Amino acid sequence: MLRIRKITELAHLYLRLNVKEGEQVIDATAGNGFDTLFLADLVGKSGQVYAFDIQSEALAITKHKLNEHGIDDRVTLICDGHEKIDLYIQNKVAAVIYNLGFLPGGDRDITTRSETTLNSLSKALPLLKNGGLAVLVLYPGHGEGKTERDHLLKYCYKLLPHDYSVLHLRLINQPNEPPELLVIQRNLFGMPGDA
Ligand SMILES: C[S@@+](CC[C@H](N)C(=O)[O-])C[C@H]1O[C@@H](n2cnc3c(N)ncnc32)[C@H](O)[C@@H]1O
User: Fold this and answer.
1) From the CB of residue 62, how many other CB atoms can be counted at a distance below 10 Å?
2) Domain residues for 118?
3) Could you identify the atom of ligand 1 that is nearest to the CA of residue 32?
């Protein structure tokens, strides 16, 4: 059963519906590796995941997780800021996920920030193939997370409707500013009804 209260489950659902075996995808915030592992499983043996994090501890945890599942061969771990995504990836990708905020169990001061997140997203969107998705899990429950959410929404409102479609999902009856989801799709062209 899908628990709509678990925003990461919704994020994974959209990815599962869109990403196929053999495709290339990006995890912009590897953290404890749950999203990287999920993506590595989705793209299968012939696919490729690029996973970024600025903390080597996070990438070590991610690597360990992938090793345990025997699927580290299809993942490239990159210890660098996702705002430099263009230095590492030039080919088209099926999806990118940003699970924002700080590393659970880690230093809460090392968190994603509006400026770098927006910089990265503006470089990642053109990398999406037609129909590709950028999925962002937002955490407005903490100070920087709220600013980041507000800036991202402002940015998304301005995305040209011809080029992208943006979905914003939020729980409206839960306390304490629960996580929210943004799903950005690069519009499909050449499909019936998608002119
Ligand atoms: C909420 S955690 C990610 C959770 C993770 N996806 C998982 O499945 O466990 C956010 C991560 O973003 C990383 N981060 C912060 N700023 C970053 C940046 N500019 N580029 C890449 N990663 C960054 C943090 O180090 C942290 O590990």
Assistant:
1) 25
2) 7-186
3) 9
Write the CA distances from 57 to 9, 54, 63, 88, integer angstroms. 24, 9, 10, 20
**R_g (Cα) of the chain, nearest Å:** 16
Q: Considering only CA atoms, which residue is closest to atom 12 of ligand 1?
A: 29
Other CB atoms within a 10 A radius of the CB of residue 90 amount to 8
Among candidate residues 69, 70, 68, 25, the one with its CA nearest the CA of residue 47: 25
CATH code of the domain containing 134: 3.40.50.150
pLDDT in tens, 67-80: 999 999 999 999 99
**Residue 192 falls within a domain, yes or no?**
no
CA atoms of 32 and 61, how far apart (whole Å): 6
Nearest atom, ligand 1, residue 34 CA? 8
As for how many domains the chain has, the answer is 1
Identify the bridge partners of residue 79 per DSSP, sorted by sequence position.
Answer: 53
Is 171 within a domain?
yes
pTM: 0.97
